[in-house]
Amino acid sequence: MTTTQSTSIDPIDRGGPGAREARGPRRAGRAPGILGAGIASMRLELLAYFRTPDTVFFTFLFPILMLGIFGVAFESVGEIGAGPDGTGGITMAAYYLPGMVAAGILLSGVQNLAVDIAREKSEGWLARLGGTPISPVSYFLGKAGMILLTSIAQLGLLLGFSAVVLRVELPTEPELWLRFTWLFLLGIATMTLLGIALSAVPRSSRSATAVVLPIVLLLQFISGVYLQFTMLPEWLQNIASVFPLKWLAQGMRSVFLPEGFASAERTGAWDLGLVALNLGVWLVIGLVISLLTFRWQRKY
Predict the structure, then answer these.
(1) Global confidence as pTM
(2) Are the C-beta atoms of residues 83 and 140 closer than 8 Å to each other?
(3) What's the pLDDT tens digit per position in 112-140?
(4) How far apart are CA 101 and CA 152, in angstroms?
């Protein structure tokens, strides 16, 4: 019996040489472990995302539904922005498309993450997760991966709906799609970090939607998503210009609208350098706030 008991105890448990040998490889494999846990977390986040009807409706399908409503409601207006010779005009659906693309990125990153993380924190799920060996890096890799994949799927559905149902002519120049790619990636990274940062504001899961929804809704109305930006009072334009959605929407207009529409912008140009600068600044702000405020559980 004594022999059986002693041989059933792993050398690692006794802290002998076997323990030191086993710990070395574990340290070396820590980074792949973080990545593997992040991928597993992303899979779980995706399953949870599409199993929540209100999340799917208000973040995934909302821009598509709004574009459909605007496209149908203003169909009788005809084409806008036509030149003196009657050419170069676009439908209202085409005009609203870039704003809906920008709004979709905002909803996916800011609204979805801010509400989701605040709820997980309030309900104690994050506190339990913090008691496990999982790294915060793996947790946020899962969140960021979910946001990226759902945003790509949302974008594909939105563009497909625009082209097939609303007959919107999408860009054909490779240069414009290259511009769209960096705008999308920079925009989704910025909105993801801002969503994480904003999740520290709600005090409970019940107040999360009440806190976050008015913010994202107000930003959409003052940032040129639903209304032409230059139609707003100058003081409101100045306020909107502080926030990233205005710049993301402006960048998207440079992709999907004819070049002549740049004259309708505040400076008469697309100002892509300023677009990149402002989004980059907000990305850094979101990162810093996230690092300073994130906790596995709220401190009351």
Answers:
(1) 0.85
(2) no
(3) 999 999 888 888 878 787 777 777 888 88
(4) 11
